[in-house]
Specification:
It is elongated, with a radius of gyration of 21 Å. With 171 residues, it is mainly alpha-helical. It has 2 domains: 64 residues, no CATH class; 81 residues, no CATH class. The termini are far apart. The protein has a 3-stranded antiparallel beta sheet with strand order 2-1-3, with no helix packed on it. The chain is built from 6 helices and 3 strands.
Length: 171
């Protein structure tokens, strides 16, 4: 098995380094060991396999990459298909996060307006119609069903998380 090295970024030095994960070197090692910059000694950010660093002197791009990292957007994937959509600037990032919030609010509306099934037959019919929405909230949706309260709590939590990410992105 080939072990690809993730890219780590030091936002202070504006440099990146590749390094093997400790678990590839020592299977019994604590995998939570943080990566420190070999130059300044500060903690580095694990940016994933598909990260391409900006030029060292491109301060604006480094600040943008740092803001992506702070809101939880990195370049992790298996290395084959890429990390998915990465917004290209701050305005696009905020628009992207606002769209996610809008989608989450739409899901919350579903749960607030849903008529909760009262028996097994209604639960099965509800599952056939809404399996994606139910399965998003609980992996036990088919067997046990999902209450409206569970769905509402789930989406309120997601909305709060995305609003926090939006707050950080807007700074």
């Amino acid at each position: 098995m080939v072990a690809y090295k993730p890219h780590y970024a030091c936002f202070s030095c504006q440099k990146t380094f590749k390094r093997y994960l400790l678990k590839y070197v020592d299977r019994n090692a604590d995998i939570s060991v943080d990566a420190k910059c070999p130059q300044c000694g500060e903690l580095m950010a694990n940016m994933g396999l598909d990260f391409k660093s900006p030029a060292k002197n491109d301060d604006k791009q480094w600040q943008y990459i740092k803001s992506l990292y702070r809101v939880g957007i990195t370049f992790h994937s298996c290395g084959c298909s890429g990390p998915g959509y990465i917004p290209e600037d701050k305005e696009t990032l905020i628009s992207y996060l606002e769209q996610i919030r809008s989608d989450y609010q739409e899901s919350l509306r579903f749960w607030r307006n849903r008529t909760e099934p009262e028996n097994k037959a209604e639960r099965e019919k509800d599952y056939q119609r809404n399996w994606q929405k139910l399965s998003t909230v609980s992996n036990k949706a088919k067997k046990e069903g999902v209450s409206n309260l569970e769905g509402i709590d789930y989406w309120i939590k997601r909305i709060h998380e995305i609003e926090e990410r939006l707050r950080i992105a807007a700074q």
